[in-house]
Amino acid sequence: MTDGTPHRAGASESAAPAEKPAAPSGTPAELTSLERTALYKSLGNPLRRRILDYLGRHGEANSTVLARELGESSGTTSYHLRKLAEQKLIEEIPEKSGGRERWWRSLPFNHTTPDPETMAPEEYAAAEQLALLKIELDTRLFRRAHREYRGPDGWAQVRRAGTWMTKDELHAFVRGYQELLDRYGHPDETAPDGARRVNLRFYAAPDTGDEGNGALASR
Fold it and tell me: Strands across the sheet with 61-62, in order?
């Protein structure tokens, strides 16, 4: 998926709304403002993010497992699991659930944040809070990639570039980026031996003339 931090016209740099967060696969193409607001709040909730991260890494869990692993009560994790399921970010595993024991797995999702100028105030505020959280996490990832870089044959890779593009060419490039992810990436259940989960981020913004020359692809 493509990340970004769009701004409202006239907004300060510290007021960037959310990166392009994800919404459930299979939901209507256009979510309402209320649905997007609820989505951004869920993705910005620290415990729900930890639950989604655990399910993404381990495939499945119930409230008891999550309570033990995340240091919460099973009642708390059960509540947040139900809320995530209401938004179709996760689903119950019928073949493993029975009685009071309910097992859950994450669902694939894909959503692009709309133009911040079209957002209702509450939606914008929720998107902004999510953006600040994601920027902090992405900054940590960027620093770690530099710290763990061991040359072009290592697991950690960092590339920076600058070039001239039309808007249509940039959009085609973004589509090509997604096609590369689809071509070389693997779902958890089909990942080959030797594969590791890899975190990737993509950003693109027009040069303002005061951010340095990014023409060289380098660390």
Answer: 61-62, 103-106, 90-92
pLDDT of residue 19: 40
Return the amino acid letter for 13.
Answer: E
Which residues neighbour 111 within 8 Å (Cβ) at sequence distance 6 or greater? 20, 21, 22, 23, 24, 31, 39
pLDDT attached to residue 210: 74
Q: What is the pTM of this model?
A: 0.69
Best CA proximity match to 112, nearest among 11, 10, 17: 17
Q: Which tokens go with 56?
A: 């993404």
> Cβ(54)–Cβ(47) under 8 Å?
no
The whole-chain average pLDDT of the chain stands at: 83
Whether 99 and 55 have beta carbons less than 8 Å apart is answered as no
